[in-house]
Each structure stands twice: as C-alpha cells, then as structure tokens.
Amino acid sequence: MHPYDYVRAILRGWPIMLGAAILGLVAAGVVSALATTQYTATTTIYFAAAGGPKGEDLAYAATYTQARVQGFDSLARSTSVLEPAAAAVGDGVNAEELADRVSVDTSLTTTLVDVSVQDTSAKRAAKTADAVSGSLINQVSALERPDKDGPSAMTGTVVSAARVPDSPSTPNWPVNLIVGLVVGVVIGSAVVVARDLARRARAHGTTGA
Fold first, then answer.
1. Is the domain of 127 the same as that of 98?
2. How do residues 125-150 score in pLDDT, each as one tens digit?
3. Looking at residues 188-208, what average pLDDT do you find?
4. How many domains does the chain have?
5. pTM of the model
6. Are residues 43 and 101 in the same domain?
7. Does residue 76 sit in the same domain as residue 122?
8. How many whole angstroms separate alpha carbon 59 and alpha carbon 9?
9. If you ran DSSP here, which 8-state letter would residue 160 be given?
C-alpha cells in the first residue's frame, strides 16, 4: 500500500476510529473514577554547613553539603526519620506504610531538598511532609555531629513549609483522558488499516483465481 492508500482507508473507516476513540475515553474515565484520590504536599529544606565558613572553606563546605544531601533520599525513608514523624502525625500513621508515600528530590547544584508526601487527605499530606522534614533535619543534625557533645557540622532550615494542596495529584483526569483518546485512535487506525489490507488480499485472491 502507498501512503495515500492508508489515508484513504482511514477516511473510509472513520466510524470505526470514532468508536475506538470514544471507547478509549470511556475506559480512561472509568480507570480515573476507580483510582484512589491522592494529594501530594511538599516541604523544601535548605541544608548548609554550620559555622559560617568563608573563602576557600565556604567553597569546600558547599561542595561537601551538596555531596551529603544526595544520600538524604534513603535517610528520609529510614525508620530513624519516619518513626518520629509518624508519631508526630498520629491518625494511625506508621513508619512502614509512610515509607511508600515519601519521596525526596535533591539537586546536584544546590543544597535544597524537597520532601514530598502522598496521602488520601490533603491536610494530612501537608502535615506529614512537615513532620518528615523536621525529623530529617533532626537526624541529619545528629549524624553530622563529629563530637557527641559538640555542635553539628550541618544545619537544615525549612524554607518552604508544605501547603495543603487544592487539587489531587492523582488521578490526573486531563492526562488520562488524552492518553485514552490517543490509544483509542491508534487502535482504531490499526483496525481500519488491517481491515483494508485483508480486503485487498481477498480481492487480489479473487482476481488471481
């Protein structure tokens, strides 16, 4: 088949494509309606070396801190951080299930750390994000203390507390519907082209006979 033949086949089979597109939209709508509504809240923390270093020490401190924050993703989901956070949140939240709902984003160029939490409750998502962030700051302060009785070598400050989200993060209805529509159109096109190829094959066989 030439490209023009494909276009002609699709134009002839538009009812099938339309039906497939509608089915794709309906399927996406059903999946979205059945999905559990989740809200995501994020707290941003700024970590820095303690003591106010200057000059070359400042550059070293920044590099050191940037390197250290790369491991905070695992630390934030550890029991040493999540157990105090779960206790602060209450509402039956436990560290084990909280670990599946916490995510941490770090940057290679800054010492900012975003702690995000998903929850079926918008208010609890924000409360939990702040609780995990506070517990993470405390744990980092304890781990970065060279002398048990001395000051910590790193401090953490919340620069953006979690806000109660206005809308759910999942399901994402617009995205789901677009995906459903596209999938439906693709499947419909494939069916139309396959039908046309089969028709041509039958016609060729009849002519050959």
1. yes
2. 999 999 999 999 999 988 888 777 77
3. 77
4. 2
5. 0.70
6. yes
7. yes
8. 65
9. E
The domain that holds 66 is classified in CATH as: 3.30.70.1130
User: What amino acid occupies position 7?
Assistant: V
Domain that holds residue 204: 3-35+171-208
Amino acid at 87: A
What gap in Å lies between CA 42 and CA 56, rounded to an integer? 33
Select from 95, 129, 98 the least CA-distant residue to 113: 129
Same domain, 64 and 145: yes
Residue 64 shares a structural domain with residue 148: yes
Distance CA 186, CA 164 (A): 39
Same-domain status, 22 and 97: no
Residues 26 and 55 in one domain: no
| Eight-class DSSP state of 108 | S
Give tens-digit pLDDT for 160-175: 999 999 988 888 888 8
